[in-house]
Amino acid sequence: MFSFFSSRKFLRHIAFLTTAAAVMLSGCGGKDNAGGEPVSVEIWHYYNGSLQSSFDKMIENFNNTVGAENNITVKAHSQGSIADLETAVLNSANKQVGSGVLPNIFASYADTAYEIEKMGILADLDQYFTAEEQAEYIDSYIEEGRIGSGGELIIFPIAKCTETFMLNKTEWDAFAEATGAVTEDMRTVEGVTDTARRYYEWTDALTPDIPGDGKALYGRDALANLFIIGSKQLGHEIFRVENGSVTVDLDESAMRKIWDNYYVPYISGYFRSDGKYRSDDVKVGNIISLIGSTSSAVYFPDEVTDDHGTHAIDAEILPMPVFEGGQAVSVQQGAGMVVTKSTPEEEAAAVLFLKWFTEPENNIAFSAESGYLPVKKEANDYDYYKETAEKLGIEIAGTNDMVIKDAFSRISEAELYTNKAFDGCQEARSILEKSLADKAAEDRTAVVDHMELDMSLEEAVALYNTDENFSAWFAQLKADIDAAVNKG
Questions:
Q1: Phi, psi (rounded to 5 degrees) for 281
Q2: I need a labelling partner for 29 at 20 to 30 A (CA). Which of 106, 311, 319, 437 fits?
Q3: pTM of the shown model
Q4: DSSP state of 118
Q5: 289 pairs with which residues across the strands?
Q6: What is the β-pairing status of strands 415-417 and 163-168?
Q7: Contact status, residue 65 vs residue 15, Cβ threshold 8 Å
Q8: Which DSSP string do the residues of 261-292 spell out, in sequence order?
């Protein structure tokens, strides 16, 4: 991991930005604090490890430059995991015994911010950003943050991510040379399924004396995204939110496509998930490709340790597969920051920090180390990103470079989508995350048990890949989603 904050070029550039950043608020209901009383801004977040270190260094730079000129000091505290942060924020908002006072800023996903917004304690950020300023950001990032009852901007984007399709090219090349497979075969979701079948059969044939020991090609993180984005690609928005009210469109034909292209290949052994994340499965050779967050690309291994020992691998980034006949839609992810209501001086100081943080040069500096994507349109141009990184003395690792280039291309070409928050949305998403994943894992175990009793793979899979099994699962999924939404 490089350390770009020690770069003299970077520090000189921050100093150059100081004067401009100090007057950012003058045109939109805010004011700088030069010559005023000292103001302290507290931030709660969920960053840990190298990500926390990067964020802390950004804050240090702000405090030493723009903050110093405006008598503003920013202090940040990690609350642990995302779940820990959500608990701390909700406890504070509800004034639970032993909880701390809500900070000036906290990182939040839409569901948590939505709950707290209903309490009336979050600042309307529209008053601090002109229309021209807001237009500098990716449109969908701003739209996602409009969760106020009247469409007010409540969640401010500071760094985002989408998903990426990563491949162990070293292992793939051996398969491709032997079978004639090409990565273009995996442009569609259905193509991934078929290619995974071919890979399983090829690896199974390598040991003819051991039937049924083929290897999985693929796995994916965040299965809820397969449902939400896959359905959107097929013309169905599972959770359509208007004026705070949600309409559920859990289309049976779309769910059958997901069943056929996740459950069936999973119980067949073509897909696999064992570790906490699919990058863990790549590291031990259980799979050779994955779909995961762009921010997790830093964890894709450069070597694999399997039954044959440890060996180096090369990575390749592939286009995100889309369902056949579907529209190009990619997920939009990443927590934003919300500002709590306080004094005018504290709110203005909090916004000043957020504006400084998302200036293209600063945002790129954070993005390059964290793996997240910058949020302004200007910074989402690959050539500009690379030139800026070079100017700041930042060396971007090869895999991250490929991921960023691919992500920028999709941001400009595909629709970015995330559903709006609604009552019960967290539970509904959890159901999508676990429903098919848990059933596939359970039934895969049963299939393996049948195979150990001398049943063929095809025979064992046929016991579970039935219309009746799908219908029962779909009915339960629909009932669970309806209950979550109605309870909310």
A1: -70, -35
A2: 106
A3: 0.90
A4: T
A5: 167, 218
A6: unpaired
A7: yes
A8: IIIHHHHTTSB---SSSHHHHHHTTS-SEEEE
